[in-house]
Design a protein that fits this description.
single chain, alpha+beta, Ribosomal Protein S5, domain 2, four-stranded mixed sheet, globular
């Protein structure tokens, strides 16, 4: 398989302490503890359905607002993925997934081409799912994409239950990431770009 594709990032500020480790060639193992239960649940979808191994340990000033913590988790997760990808040689690079969860439907398309951008179309009816502010779901995904240096599109065109909509989006993200990071034996060692650099 070649060298292990692992990224490990620590970030400590006056507001948060976050440590993230990602193995792209894992078995779906996770050890995630952010102190925000619903956030843990959504993040656990990425290793489980993407077959990555991910550890996230995070604490922050959630007595004020979980904003700082969630943003910094997105930053660290993106940087860990980017570090694990390295020069991105031999990867499939672009992928998409469509995932239903009961009445909800989520579509994710992404390109690990080195350009961080997020275009998100997710509407939630409630302000919170458990302890998780719903407006922070998009913020987390944006930070993840920007710091991970990938183009991310997420759409949730159907659904009435906010939990189902969010979970379907993260499952679709996991499946798309799993396909995009996969090594294609036909382009071993090659950068998947006409520019020959990502």
């Amino acid at each position: 398989m070649g060298p292990e594709r692992i990224g490990s990032i620590r970030r400590e500020t006056k507001e948060t302490q976050v440590a993230v480790e990602v193995s792209l060639d894992g078995a779906g193992r996770s050890d995630i503890d952010t102190s925000v239960g619903m956030l843990d649940h959504l993040l656990e979808q990425i290793p489980r359905h993407g077959l990555f191994d991910i550890t996230i340990k995070a604490r922050g000033d959630i007595d004020r607002d979980p904003h700082h913590l969630i943003e910094d988790i997105g930053i660290c997760l993106g940087r860990a993925f980017s570090e694990a990808l390295g020069e991105r040689r031999g990867i499939v690079r672009m992928a998409h997934a469509v995932v239903p969860l009961d009445e909800a439907l989520a579509l994710v398309a992404l390109d690990l081409g080195g350009r961080g951008y997020a275009a998100l179309d997710m509407a939630f009816d409630s302000d919170r799912i458990g302890q998780l502010p719903t407006d922070m779901i998009g913020h987390l995904l944006s930070a993840f994409a920007i710091e991970g240096r990938f183009n991310l599109h997420v759409r949730v065109p159907a659904g009435t239950n906010d939990h189902h909509k969010a979970e379907a989006a993260f499952k679709a993200l996991a499946r798309a990431l799993a396909d995009a990071v996969r090594l294609d034996p036909r382009i071993v060692g090659e950068v998947p770009s006409t520019k020959e650099v990502l």
